[in-house]
Amino acid sequence: MTGIIPESFTPPPDTSATGDVMQSYGHVWRRVEFAVERCARSLTDDRDEREDLIQEARVELWRIDPSRCNPQSADDVRYLARVLMRHMRKVASTTRARTSGS
Amino acid sequence: MTRLNPHVLVQFTRRVVAQQFRGQLTELHAPPFPDGADEARSRDPESALATLDVRLLQLLGVRAYYDLATGRSAWPVPLGLSPHGLALFGAERGILHERPESGDIFLQRSLRVREFIHAGLVMTVDGYGCVNDHTVYFDTSTIEGDTDHRGLLERGYTCKLRRRLSPTLGDRFLRWCELEVESAGPAASPLPRKVA
Q1: Within 10 Å of residue B76's Cβ, how many Cβ atoms?
Q2: For the whole model, what pTM was predicted?
Q3: Which of A9, A16, A20 is opposite residue B161, by nearest beta carbon?
Q4: What is the pLDDT of residues B85-105, one digit of tens each?
Q5: Contacts of B166 in chain A (CB under 8 A)
Q6: Res. A3: pLDDT tops 60
């Protein structure tokens, strides 16, 4: 699990600029990326499948809206990583079942 | 008994935030007791317990519906609540909705805990859609306190944001304008310039 690094914030320019909550995506993803990649490695040795699972985790993070997780809270980050890993395991088992069925 | 016009708040917020508050620290302009709040309510120590994001909403609400003649504000939402407290208040009064409208207070649900953790004002609803066939979302423009330009929690700034909110993920909208107030006050009158 990556550590929680406090960072300074530069306010947006004092113009008509409007922020976008989807900008939080990259910021939050960096906090869980390591755990997600490690989980993907543990689920499959196949590189393509691994990348597919990581992509599934990215889509899931986008779906659940990263801004509802506080990246400064270790509990929140840990919980989010667990949610994403659970999702990857579910996708992996569904894919495995489908493959063995065909 | 009558109801307040939410567009008064939206327009007031648009002006005040654009001219004074945007990109500034929320705590510098949103005191625990907003100027113009009912004195009886201000004396209640629990009124100071509002979180920073709710303090901004209180300030905007109290000022937008401030009546210079009576020296009182018609803002109908109690002071000193957290986002979760606002949700409980809304549920009790039957004004918590799943579809946003301009002027609503949005309540963002936490991923980890079963609570609402953040609140702001919906300025416009720009669209809606669905992710993975089961997660409904609404694209909104919001103004909120205690955040940053990325919409992260507890960042301390007042910002105007494009935010995606999802009732499927537990987000709700407090339609405070459905609350009845004693008189229309300044709801239909021009914005109070002196308190802005």
Answers
A1: 18
A2: 0.86
A3: A20
A4: 999 999 999 999 999 999 999
A5: 65
A6: no
